[in-house]
Amino acid sequence: MSAQDKIIKASHMITMADIIREGNPTLRQKAQEVALPLSDEDIILGEKMMQFLKHSQDPVMAEKLDLRGGVGLAAPQLDISKRVIAVLVPNMEDSEGNPPKEAYSLQEVMYNPKIVAHSVQDAALAEGEGCLSVDRLIEGYVVRHSRVTVDYYNKDGEKQRIKLKGYNAIVVQHEIDHINGIMFYDRINEADPFAINEGMLIIK
């Protein structure tokens, strides 16, 4: 049974046991484009990936299933070398502790996503990045574009274009890197992990 056949079974919920770790060759492969129109299997795969992200952000489900919190997941992390990513970025409560009007600033399963334009300005998260496929802490600025325009297909097979900046842009770039066989630490300056390029935006 293939990894995808196992994951799309009705009874299966993705857990950390399904996520492959660094060193697995699938994480270094350039993933295959998904055929259009989308197959039922690929649509279910995307739905399962999104379900995992929701579970990972839900304190009760995360504890029950022993999940690490995540805002993005790429199919290669499930040992499925396909160009599918899911992103789920929650909006934070305001300074007075009120819940946001919209629960998520970004919630999408993207098929065959591709960066078609990007800013000259670089950006990095102040706290650095982590990854569900990496079980160790790796410090340093992960240098990315501060703004990107991404083309992709949604689960209905419709072509979409989205412009992203700041944290959302970083999350999507991290996941697109996964489908291109790139790990986040490939983008850290080895000689000086906290080097700041001219004009680079540090996102708190």
From TrEMBL:
The cofactor named in the record is:
Fe(2+)
Which top-rank group of organisms is this from? Bacteria
The keyword Iron belongs to this UniProt entry's keyword annotation: yes
Protein's UniProt keywords contain Glycoprotein: no
So what does this thing catalyse?
N-terminal N-formyl-L-methionyl-[peptide] + H2O = N-terminal L-methionyl-[peptide] + formate
Binding positions for Fe cation? Answer: 131, 174, 178
Q: Print the keywords alphabetically.
A: Hydrolase, Iron, Metal-binding, Protein biosynthesis
Q: Which GO terms describe its biological process?
A: translation
Q: Give a GO molecular function annotation for the protein.
A: metal ion binding
What is one Pfam family matched by this protein? Pep_deformylase
The UniProt record lists the EC number as: 3.5.1.88
Which residues are catalytic?
Answer: 175
InterPro entries recorded for this chain? Peptide_deformylase, Peptide_deformylase_sf
Task: List the SUPFAM superfamilies hit by this protein, alphabetically.
Answer: Peptide deformylase
Q: How is the cofactor bound?
A: Binds 1 Fe(2+) ion.
In the record, the note on similarity to other proteins reads:
Belongs to the polypeptide deformylase family.
PANTHER family named among the record's database cross-references: PEPTIDE DEFORMYLASE, PEPTIDE DEFORMYLASE 2
What is the recorded function of this protein according to its Swiss-Prot or TrEMBL entry?
Removes the formyl group from the N-terminal Met of newly synthesized proteins. Requires at least a dipeptide for an efficient rate of reaction. N-terminal L-methionine is a prerequisite for activity but the enzyme has broad specificity at other positions.
Q: What is this protein called?
A: Peptide deformylase
What organism is this sequence from? Streptococcus pseudoporcinus LQ 940-04
Organism phylogeny:
Bacteria, Bacillati, Bacillota, Bacilli, Lactobacillales
